[in-house]
């Protein structure tokens, strides 16, 4: 499977949502395929998702994939999620506003709502704060809880440590209903520990968690994780000359978008700015600059400053 990149704004990634695993997969494919085709997402242009594509990514038959897609769409059509906007106001939204069945072609066409469209980055753009990961890292996870936990953790990839997440917010972000797993022992046994084990077994990171208390009750969790050496290239032992050689190599799209976003906020980058452009527009230009090996070498010290090693 190719390296399909899932990119969401952090606001959408942190949304309080309830999704089944099949619904989650449908949203992932929509994000990836919109980026892959270069068309992006709009609120009036349907996005086609093929059962054969679903089957290839998630390891099932085409017939079963189409059944999963139709079932997921049917329930997703009525799903709602909520998030806090830039003004700190609670916003509620649906996921999709329209669906069209193409039974003879084994495909469906869906149209996302404005809140979802605004929360998904196009391949040729960069959001100021965003989360990204490869679809292959979650395609083999067994449950929606492990898939969602991976998304929430990977937002903090640059530091490998999350802040303390309030318990009730955490439950809502994982998609746990109010009446589910109210006993902490059940929550840890049936949700958290299973999700951590699933992530550690099947993805590119190894994670642990700490519980935090107010009085005798657990009030939240924080997480630490690191990349597995056998899953990602380790460059920690490279010396300075080898690092310079590294900057001459092609960066992946995910690296360019991530570090362009960080570079755009550095005062030292002001000489590359074009005056009235926004940080987002500046970051898009920087991402294009980083395609060039000479520019990467020119910016090597600043790239190291923002964490590219």
Task: Please describe what this structure looks like.
The model is unreliable at 122-128 and 232-246 (pLDDT under 50). The chain is of the alpha+beta class. Helix 6 packs across helix 8 and helix 10 (253-263) crosses helix 11 (279-289). It is globular. The two termini are 27 Å apart. Strands 2-4-5 form a 3-stranded antiparallel β-sheet. Strands 3-7-6 form a 3-stranded antiparallel β-sheet. Strands 9-11-10 form a 3-stranded antiparallel β-sheet. The chain has 13 helices and 11 strands. Helix content is 42%, strand content 20%.
Number of strands: 11
Structural class: alpha+beta
**Mean of residue pLDDT?**
82
User: pLDDT below 50 for ≥5 consecutive residues: which ranges?
Assistant: 122-128, 232-246
Radius of gyration, whole Å? 20 Å
- Strand order of the main beta sheet, please? 2-4-5
The rough form would be described as: globular
Strand residue percentage: 15-25%
Instruction: List the helices and strands in order.
Output: EHEHEHHEEEEHEHEHHEEHHHHH
Number of helices: 13
Helix content: 40-55%
């Amino acid at each position: 499977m190719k390296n399909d990149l899932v990119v969401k704004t952090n606001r959408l990634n942190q949304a309080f949502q309830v999704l089944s695993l099949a619904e989650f997969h449908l949203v992932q494919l929509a994000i990836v395929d919109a980026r892959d085709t270069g068309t992006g997402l709009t609120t009036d242009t349907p996005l086609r998702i093929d059962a054969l594509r679903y089957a290839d990514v998630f390891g099932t038959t085409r017939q079963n994939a189409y059944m999963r897609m139709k079932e997921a769409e049917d329930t997703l059509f009525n799903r709602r999620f909520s998030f806090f906007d830039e003004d700190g106001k609670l916003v509620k939204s649906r996921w999709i506003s329209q669906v069209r069945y193409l039974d003879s072609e084994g495909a469906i066409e869906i149209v996302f709502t404005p809140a979802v469209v605004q929360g998904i980055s196009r391949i040729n753009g960069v959001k100021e704060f965003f989360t990204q990961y490869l679809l292959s890292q979650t395609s083999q996870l067994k449950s929606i809880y492990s898939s969602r936990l991976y998304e929430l953790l990977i937002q903090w990839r640059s530091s490998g440590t999350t802040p303390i997440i309030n318990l009730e917010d955490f439950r809502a972000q994982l998609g746990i209903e109010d009446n589910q797993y109210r006993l902490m022992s059940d929550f840890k046994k049936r949700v958290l520990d299973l999700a951590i084990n699933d992530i550690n077994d099947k993805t590119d990171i190894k994670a642990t968690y700490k519980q935090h208390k107010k009085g005798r009750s657990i009030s939240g969790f924080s997480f630490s994780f690191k990349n597995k050496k056998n899953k990602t290239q380790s460059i920690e032992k490279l010396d300075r000359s080898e690092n310079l050689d590294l900057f001459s190599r092609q960066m992946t799209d995910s690296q360019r978008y991530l570090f362009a976003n960080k570079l755009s906020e550095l005062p030292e980058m002001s000489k590359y700015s074009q005056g009235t452009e926004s940080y987002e527009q500046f970051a898009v230009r920087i991402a294009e600059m980083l395609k060039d090996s000479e520019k990467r070498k020119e910016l090597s010290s600043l790239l190291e400053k923002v964490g590219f090693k």
